[in-house]
Amino acid sequence: VATYDATAVLFSLPLSTLRPRTTLRPLATLARAAPIVPAIKLPHGLTHQTPLVESLPLSAATGCQVLLKMDALQPSGSFKDRGMAYMCAALQSRGVTDLISSSGGNAGLAASAAGRKLGMRVRVVVPTTTKPIMIEKMRAHGAEVEVHGANWNAADELARELVGASGGAAAYVPPYDDPLLWEGHSSIIDEIAAAGVRPDAIVVSVGGGGLLCGVLRGLQRHGWSETTVLTAETDGAACFAKALAAGEPVTLAGITSVATSLGALSASSSAVQMARDDQPTEAYTVSDAEAVGACASLLDDHRVLVEPACGAALALAYSPRQREALRRFETVVVVVCGGGGVTHEILSQWKADLL
Length: 355
Hints:
Strand order of the largest sheet: 1-2-10-7-8-9
Number of helices: 13
Structural class: alpha/beta
């Protein structure tokens, strides 16, 4: 097995199980001449620099080099730690000590984790769709959790009311729609660049659009205007795909997907605008079965457990019906955004229900 600079590269299947394909390029050969761009400085000790993993199974299946940015290995289990760490630390520097967040799960967990390490009070309002395991994890970090409403939008209304009622004592922390969050998330691109990789395409799951806004900001900061962004959602939570087609935000009537972490009824207007005007962006939707199947395959291939919201992005490579979208590229990075609301038992039930 070859070794590479900057970032860990893992292989998970015997070479004998892979069909022949073109020779994979070492990561060190992927860099293209580009100016050095200062990286976003995330607060020390709140996030990890995550591995960039070369997936031999997915590279063999797609005919391009597929690299996995393993943000499932962040402290709370998802990419959300990046933006939450950056935003919570910024608010603390302004004298804020009390945070109120709304979340379907992962953003609230990331806020809870960051707040505990920073010594801040954290209150999180979640909808009834949030899994008990996520509520338990938030409370384990010392967060005060209130369950309210049938979806995130209803929970968010209450969170904003609580902030208003605090008389300025508490700051509102949104799950995805804030430039401070996007700036933190953009560090994903800094780490990819530091590994000597400039991909032809990057694949991201989209719920409300926070991760997408961060990726777009990072690409623009590095001058990677030719990198294509491929977004992925499940069919029952496809607010961004509908918005990009319409050229403006679209509000869904409801979420009808197992990928509840993609459960925003409408995407950030900034995400729609940046994707439409600033970067080549293509929106794809996958079935719940494809998303869950991708989660199961990732666990088999790379021993990492993720939610179907993350499986949506992975499905563009794992699903035979979807992977044609990747074949035109030489190097593709898939952001494995993770998710804390999954266990082996939960994944087994999803597989029994859908596969």
